[in-house]
Amino acid sequence: MKKEDFSERDKVVKHNIYASVRRRDGLPHNLFAHYWRDVHSTLCSRLPGLNFYVQQHFDRDHYANFWPVADGVGRIDAALDGSAELGFANLEDQAVFAEAGKILYGDESNFIGEAVAYNLPNGSTTFIDRDADAHRNGPDPFHRIHLYMSRKPGDESASWLKEVATVLAGHDAVVKLKLHLPEPYDNEHPAPPSPNVDHIVGPDRVNLAVAEIAFASALAARSLFASTEFKSVQKDQARYIDAVGVYLVTGFYTFVRDGQPTLAGVRGSRSAALIQQLGAANQLDDKVASMFGIR
Q: Sorted alphabetically, which InterPro entries does this protein's record hold (predicted)?
């Protein structure tokens, strides 16, 4: 029996931002993670214009760079602690958020050492998504990676990556595959322009592509690598890709979906998890929600 595909729910997002994040030097990882998912997230979730907002936290210390690399392809070794994806239903909403979002800039230096925001004026593409939970908030139950690829200039690399994504999304081992093909990053115009935070990238992260790929397990991922489908596309890797880096996701947190803050977006990720764990239904009452600025 074929498993259900929920990728249609992402099509409402027409334009988005993919941001890579590294924690501030000297800040313990748990403080960084808690502040990002409980404090910064609730401020961002309340801003107008935002249709979709997800954080994915990476495990910097866990070796995930096992993606098979063809001869002639290098490695991206940037130390990163997570990504944020912000989506918009139209350009007008994105402009509204861009103006309101200036309030976030002063907060980023509290916990972020490097933030790099990549613009996707045509949005991203979800090729497959078999995860029924649209409001996921907590430790990631899947073996999920973000595959960073330094792609060669020109349209050919983008076309090849779309073809590869289509092929890999059809494999039984793949639970989700989402492809981000942003505009080349411009170091002359750092984004976001938050003060006291680094926004400059090296050559291997200027013309970037990112694939979010989730598997049921690490063993399932290995089965993909051994497949004829993977080998059929991997042989052309060096023709279109200069370098790759792989980041393991440990936490997946959804704060805004379909233009509405989730429980995590209103109360913070850990508070929302406690409410759900205890079955505290009274906390979902409209009168309680109104106390947190939600009508």
A: Dimeric_a/b-barrel, EthD_dom
CA distance 76 to 202: 10
234-288 pLDDT tens trace: 889 999 999 999 999 999 999 999 999 999 999 999 999 999 999 999 998 888 8
Q: What are phi and psi of 199, to 5 degrees?
A: -135, 15
Q: Which of 180, 251, 208, 141 is nearest to 10 (CA)?
A: 180
Q: Within 13 Å of residue 266, how many CA atoms lie on the same side as its CB?
A: 20
H/E stretch holding 151:
strand 137-151
Residue type, 71: D
Of 3.30.70.100, 3.30.420.40, 3.40.50.1000, 2.40.10.220, the CATH number of 10-290 is 3.30.70.100
Identify whether the C-beta of residue 111 lies closer than 8 Å to the C-beta of residue 31: yes
3-class secondary-structure state, position 40: helix
d(CA 5, CA 213): 15
Rounded to 5 degrees, what are φ and ψ at 94? -65, -40
Q: Which pTM does this prediction carry? A: 0.95
Find residue 120's DSSP bridge partners: 16
Report the C-alpha gap between 137 and 269 in whole angstroms. 7
From 51, 72, 78, 40, select the one nearest 185 (Cα to Cα): 78
- The 10 Å Cβ neighbour count of residue 45 is 21
Asked if residue 246 lies in contact with residue 252, where contact means CB atoms within 8 angstroms, the answer is no
> Quick one: which H or E segment has residue 266?
helix 263-267
- Tens of pLDDT, residue by residue over 68-108, are 888 999 999 899 999 999 999 999 999 999 999 999 999 99
